[in-house]
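Course assignment 3, question 2. Fill in each field.
Student: A.L.
Task: Predict the tertiary structure for the chain below.
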Amino acid sequence: MCLLKIVPMAENHIQKLTEIDRVCFEQPWTFDGLKAELFSETACYFVAEKDGQAVGCAGMQSVCGECYIDKVSVHPYFRRRGIAQALVQHLIQSALKTDSEFITLEVRKFNEPAISLYKKLGFEPVGLRKNFYTNPLEDAILMTRYFKNKNL
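Answer field:
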């Protein structure tokens, strides 16, 4: 039995992560797009490894105390095993370490498993982006977890 390991994204992960994205998304990230995140001063990306092989990743941008999750992907074979939760928890911990105000993301309106996970992790729906996604056309729910008093 192999334990899940969450590590910072590195160049040796990029090829496998682009393959995972092709399986997971209609509009997957490209090799160059993911690789560029390695050199971004605002990016924070983690990879889930099993037996040394990437099985998923999650990443965000952190700017001026605000964190925006860009992606969460887990290979379909490895879903429903707590991997997405572990990845998002790492992003939350990174946001807390940088004293961020909040962390936010968009999720397809009908992606109930993801919405349930984000609610479990303290995110709350804060808005709707009409026709945000294509293939198929679908609204996005904007979900945010606040770390500080949002009324200040």
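Instructor remarks: The helical segments are 14-24, 31-37, 83-97, 112-120. The chain is about 30% helix and 40% strand.
Grade: pending
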